[in-house]
Amino acid sequence: MLSTAARIDKVIHIVAASDKSWEAAARTAVAEAAKSIRELTFAKVIERDLLVNDGLLIYRIKLEIEFQVDRNRSDSAGLPIQVRRYLIVANQTLANTELVSWVAAKSSDHRAEFHVVVPQTAPSVLHADPATGLIGPAAHTMVLESRHASLEEGERRLASFRHALGEIADSVTGEVVLSDPVTATRVVMGRSSFDEIVVSVLPAGISRWLKLDLPSRIERAFHLPVTTLVERDDS
Amino acid sequence: MDSVYNVIELIGTSDESWEKAAAAAVSEASKTLRDLRVAAVVEQDLLIEASEVMLYRTKIRLSFKHESGE
Q: Which of A4, A38, A132, B10 lies in the 20 to 30 Å Cα band around A88?
């Protein structure tokens, strides 16, 4: 049996690219990994390579990162405690005070950690002009701009949610994933581990996620207990 | 004539790049070693603080001719 002092780490590889330098690529990778990993202090370079694209150099770097996956922590007095890790899937409800109160209640004894994933839909496929079979540069720019806007929108929601949490925000990490909710959850599950998934949805009448039966789909896909937080309909 | 070489490893750090980290290690080694010719990069890693890269570290391997003192 594991003692409470035991520690289990997970090892992942992250690949990032930059058109400037391997250092810049590494900074991108670290910033990305830090979104879902607490206490990230070390990364090892596994591989570096160059892609040559139309005479332009792309610097790629592969980093190895280790992080704690067990639930053993110490409290403020240094005594061993166990935490429960929640993955919260939320988008529009981040602006609502109900989710804030729920997180506050769960974290009252400091034995809970939360990661928020904000799935934002954004175009990922470029549609070619049926007449020419080509993808115009204007269409490409439009897709990039739309993805950027979705990302910013998600980051804004996440920032105001963290702001509303106040001091509790310390036990909350979060990230925006440009994808549907199930895929976004899969992305996050791939690099971290959780005990429970919380799906935060709008009131029953208007929630698209409830219409899609997202909570059951997530439960089937990840075999974890799923809690659905339905926002109250005050209108 | 047969030769013998010493091999040592050093870790240099920089807050800017792995190149500067390597240069720091080489310049330190050259203070005490003569005829340094090749430094091989053995390992590179990163120290991270508050979600940002704090230090680039480069481990280099240096070899230099063993002088028996004759």
A: A4
